[in-house]
């Protein structure tokens, strides 16, 4: 597992989404790109988390934050998640490779039931500046204890109002 360092370039990432290809280095958000890695269609906690994110999509957009959710799921499973979970706004990426997951420092799990894929990645959240450097990361080894999106919205407000630098780079 690789630890990413704030203020340093993030690893390359080109991911298929349900609406086209998303490439981290090609993004040009006003303030941040926010990548939310979810476990996949099998995860009920992911369902409620992404539904909450979807409700707050415009709040992030109004703060200059571009959002992407992605997982190891296939295109078919990503479509099912979007439809069954009622995700209307958040772009959904699929097919995250184990190599890419490890380069981003994500925890890799093996399925323990027939509902789970053979391998999948535990949740992660990354705030990336327009120059493709890491501002902040939150990486979990379990489906629990994810950052609350309301807290992230407040954090973005604080960051902008105070020109607060990325931390953890030492």
Q: What would you note in describing this structure?
A:
- With 170 residues, the protein is an alpha+beta fold.
- Helices cover 29% and strands 24% of the residues.
- It is built from 5 helices and 9 strands, in the order βββααβαβαββββα.
- The strands form 2 sheets. It has a 7-stranded mixed sheet with strand order 2-1-5-4-3-8-9. It has a two-stranded antiparallel sheet with strand order 6-7.
- A hairpin with an 8-residue loop joins β6 and β7.
- It is globular and about 50 Å long.
- The model has no long low-confidence stretch (mean pLDDT 97).
* Overall pLDDT level: 97
User: What is the tally of beta strands?
Assistant: 9
- H/E element order: EEEHHEHEHEEEEH
Task: Look at the helices and sheets and give the structural class.
Answer: alpha+beta
Number of helices: 5
Oligomer: single chain
* Helix fraction by DSSP (H/I, runs of at least 4): 25-40%
What Rg do the Cα atoms give? Answer: 15 Å
Ranges with pLDDT <50 over ≥5 residues? none
Shape: globular
Report, as a whole number of angstroms, the end-to-end distance.
19 Å
The largest beta-sheet arranges its strands as 2-1-5-4-3-8-9
Protein traits:
about 170 residues, alpha+beta, 7-stranded mixed β-sheet, two-stranded antiparallel ribbon, 9 strands
Summarize the structure.
This protein has 170 residues and is α+β, with helices and mostly antiparallel strands. The protein has five helices and nine strands, in the order βββααβαβαββββα.
Tell me the layout of helices and strands.
Blueprint: E1 14-17, E2 20-23, E3 32-37, H1 44-55, H2 57-62, E4 65-70, H3 75-85, E5 92-94, H4 98-103, E6 108-110, E7 119-121, E8 124-128, E9 134-139, H5 149-162
Parallel strand pairs: 3-4, 4-5
Antiparallel strand pairs: 1-2, 1-5, 3-8, 6-7, 8-9
């Amino acid at each position: 597992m690789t630890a990413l360092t704030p203020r340093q370039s993030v690893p390359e990432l080109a991911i298929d989404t349900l609406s086209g290809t998303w490439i981290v280095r090609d993004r040009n958000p006003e303030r941040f790109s926010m990548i939310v890695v979810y476990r996949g269609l099998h995860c009920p906690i992911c369902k409620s988390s992404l539904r909450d994110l979807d409700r707050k999509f415009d709040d992030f957009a109004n703060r200059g934050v571009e959002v992407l959710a992605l997982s190891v799921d296939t295109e078919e499973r990503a479509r099912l998640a979007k439809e069954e979970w009622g995700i209307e706004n958040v772009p959904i990426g699929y097919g995250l490779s184990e190599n890419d997951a490890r380069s981003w420092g994500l925890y890799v799990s093996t399925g323990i039931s027939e509902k789970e894929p053979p391998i999948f990645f535990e949740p992660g959240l990354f705030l990336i500046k327009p120059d493709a450097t890491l501002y902040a990361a939150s990486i979990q080894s379990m489906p629990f204890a994810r950052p609350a999106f309301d807290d992230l919205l407040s954090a973005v407000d604080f960051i902008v109002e105070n020109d607060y630098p990325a931390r953890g780079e030492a």
